[in-house]
Structure formats: structure tokens, C-alpha cells
């Protein structure tokens, strides 16, 4: 599988990616290497990475607790202290080995430590392979508000080794499909169509679907790296999806994975697309049916509607206090900076629940 070259870095695939990693390490002559993992990734993936690194440079593993609830400034502070105590300097390298929490947080930690050290993302979940590790967004949550603190800076390299997916529970693997489906809905009808037959997928098929999905995001990000216009389209499903994810984050019986929340958000925002931009209702019904078939249908309690809507006020896409949505015109095309009244948002919840 051919590497994908972006303007700033290379996205490498499977076993050949480790040759490129070792070449990067040897060429840059790093003083030390720090591998950031969570406890799950450390258990299932670290040994595979260490086996493939060929260097005499000192390697230290930094482990954090898994889960979105640990993606915060307290975790960053503990990591900055650990880096300092272990003698990290500006010639050190950080390798972020894990899912979206690890790559988001690890990139942010690396960008801020001594005003910035090199970092490499090695995503181990489907979600982080097709989304979190690509595009240079690094950051942490501020309480229940997702990704409020951060910076856009690209890694020096991304390694995609799909064999890591073998260690994932089915629920986590399925979560990553939401971002791939989103890429098809906003930009590539063929990619969306290819994802319809998920039950018949082989691992080789999944490799190419991941490759296609990364290309969709890569092309959008390169045209608008700082999210002024086009890159905002990647937020389809996220205005409501992030609010739902945040609202239920600390409710053990209702907490949703990122992809599960975004799937709900895409159903809701497809309904808004029909009402505001005239997206064909048959397309909306098919999107709803496909997403519910793939992710299930956890109900949104009507008593939670107002609280979720309240969280949307903090969405980063908002302008002048107005909540902004990305909505579909058709499968494969969308419009940014759309507004919807609260009563219509409530109707979208009702449409999803029914």
C-alpha cells in the first residue's frame, strides 16, 4: 500500500511503515524517545512497536489511564513533569501509540513541552486511524467541553498498522466506522456506498476503505489546514454528536463512545438537512436506517434535550453566539455555517427516537 504524502508529513502503512520510522529516528539523531500509551495500549500494542524499533537511543514508556475523562490538563501536567524528571529535551521524540485520546493529548503535550518537540502518531483504533491522528489537531477537554484547549500542528510522521485492530473489542472497532461514513456523506458518495456492505468485509477490504477514508480527510485538510471554511465540513454530525457525548460522559450506564455519539449526531443533522436544505427525505431515512443498524439506537431521554442543546453553545464552530451546523445538500455535498432553531433541533431528537 503506497504511502500518502501530505504537505508536511507522510502517512505510512503496515510493515513498511516501521522501516520509515527507523529511518526517521536515525536521520534526526534524537536524544531520547518517549512512547505515550494508555494502560490498554501498553498491554496489547507496546511490545509490537518496541520489537520493530531498531535503535540504541534510550526509550521510556509513559502510561496514562484510558478514557475520554482523562483527556484533560491535569493529565498533561503530570506528563510534562514526567518528561522533565526523565530528562527530556528539545531533541527528544514523542511517539503517541493509542487511540484518539492518546494522539490528541500526546500531540498537545509534545507541542507545548519546551515550546515543541517532534511527535509521531501511531493510531491503534479505527477511529484514530481515519480521523484523530490525521490533520494536526491536538488538544484536551475543559471539563465536559470537548477539545476546548489545543493547537493545530502536524506530526512528523503517521504510521498506520492495521494489525493493531485485532486487539480491539468489536464495539471500539465499530465506533471508528462513524467517521468513515461521515467522510462518504460529506465528500465521496462511492466511499459511502462501499461502506454499506460491512458484514461482508475482509481485513484486506478494510485496509483499502481506511486508505480511501484517510485520503478524503487529507485532501480536505490540505485545502484548509486552519479550519476557516472547507475543513469545517468534517464536523458534520459533530455539533450535536459532541454535545451528546459530553452530556453522557460521566454517566456510566449511558456513556457513549465517540463514534456512537457521532452516529446519532449524523441522524439528527441529516434530519435538519432535510428541513433546512431540502435533503431528500428518502436519503435521510436510509441514513438513519443504516446508522441504527450499525450502531444501535440508544434513546435520548426527552428530559435531556435542553441540557444537550445547552452544551452546543460551547461548540468551536459557533460565531457571535450563534450555533453553527454542517448540513447535507445531497450525499457527497454539504454546506457550512447553517443555523437551526431549538424547536427544530428537538424535532430532530424525536425523529431519531421514533
What letter string, H or E per element, gives the SSE order?
EEHEHHEHEHEHEEEHHHHHHHEEH
Work out the number of β strands: 11
| The CATH homologous superfamily of the largest domain | Dehydroquinate synthase-like - alpha domain
Strand order, sheet with most strands: 1-2-9-6-5-3-4
- pLDDT average, as an integer? 94
Question: What is the oligomer described by this structure?
Answer: single chain
- Please estimate the helix content: 40-55%
Describe this protein's structure.
It comes from Mesoflavibacter zeaxanthinifaciens subsp. sabulilitoris. Residues 176-318 form the 3-dehydroquinate synthase C-terminal domain. Residues 62-174 form the 3-dehydroquinate synthase N-terminal domain. This is 3-dehydroquinate synthase. This protein has 354 residues and is of the alpha/beta class. The chain is 47% helix and 18% strand. It has two domains: 4-167, Rossmann fold; 170-353, Dehydroquinate synthase-like - alpha domain (Dehydroquinate synthase-like, alpha domain, Up-down Bundle). It contains 14 helices and eleven strands. The strands form three sheets. It has a seven-stranded mixed β-sheet with strand order 1-2-9-6-5-3-4, sandwiched between helices. A two-stranded antiparallel sheet has the order 7-8. β1 and β2 form a beta hairpin. The model has no long low-confidence stretch (mean pLDDT 94).
Amino acid at each position: 500500500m503506497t504511502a500518502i504524502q501530505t504537505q508536511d508529513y507522510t502517512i505510512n502503512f503496515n510493515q513498511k511503515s516501521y522501516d520509515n520510522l527507523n529511518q526517521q529516528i536515525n536521520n534526526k539523531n534524537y536524544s531520547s524517545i518517549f512512547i505515550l500509551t494508555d494502560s490498554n495500549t501498553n498491554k496489547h500494542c507496546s511490545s509490537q512497536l518496541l520489537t520493530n524499533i531498531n535503535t540504541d537511543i534510550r526509550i521510556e514508556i509513559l502510561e496514562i489511564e484510558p478514557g475520554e475523562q482523562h483527556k484533560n490538563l491535569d493529565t498533561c501536567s503530570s506528563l510534562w513533569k514526567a518528561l522533565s524528571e526523565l530528562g527530556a529535551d528539545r531533541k527528544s521524540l514523542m511517539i503517541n501509540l493509542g487511540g484518539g485520546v492518546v494522539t490528541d493529548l500526546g500531540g498537545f503535550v509534545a507541542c507545548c513541552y519546551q515550546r515543541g518537540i517532534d511527535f509521531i502518531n501511531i493510531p491503534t483504533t479505527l477511529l484514530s486511524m481515519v480521523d484523530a491522528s490525521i490533520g494536526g489537531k491536538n488538544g484536551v477537554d475543559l471539563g465536559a467541553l470537548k477539545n476546548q484547549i489545543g493547537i493545530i500542528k502536524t506530526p512528523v510522521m503517521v504510521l498506520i498498522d492495521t494489525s493493531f485492530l485485532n486487539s480491539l473489542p468489536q464495539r471500539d472497532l465499530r465506533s471508528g466506522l462513524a467517521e468513515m461514513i461521515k467522510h462518504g456523506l460529506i465528500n465521496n458518495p462511492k466511499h459511502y456506498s462501499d461502506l454499506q456492505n460491512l458484514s461482508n468485509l475482509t481485513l484486506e477490504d478494510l485496509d483499502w476503505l481506511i486508505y480511501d477514508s484517510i485520503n478524503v480527510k487529507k485532501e480536505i485538510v490540505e485545502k484548509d489546514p486552519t479550519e476557516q471554511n472547507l475543513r469545517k465540513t468534517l464536523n458534520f454530525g459533530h455539533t450535536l454528536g459532541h454535545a451528546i457525548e459530553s452530556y453522557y460522559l460521566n454517566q456510566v450506564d449511558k456513556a457513549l463512545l465517540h463514534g456512537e455519539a457521532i452516529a446519532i449526531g449524523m441522524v439528527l443533522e441529516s434530519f435538519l438537512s432535510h428541513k433546512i436544505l431540502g435533503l431528500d427525505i428518502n436519503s435521510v431515512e436510509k441514513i438513519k436506517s443504516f446508522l441504527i443498524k450499525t450502531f444501535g439506537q440508544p434513546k435520548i431521554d426527552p428530559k435531556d434535550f435542553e441540557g444537550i442543546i445547552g452544551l452546543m453553545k460551547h461548540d468551536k464552530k459557533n460565531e457571535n453566539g450563534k450555533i453553527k451546523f454542517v448540513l447535507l445538500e445531497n450525499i457527497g455535498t454539504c454546506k457550512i455555517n447553517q443555523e437551526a432553531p431549538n424547536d427544530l433541533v428537538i424535532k430532530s431528537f424525536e425523529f431519531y427516537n421514533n
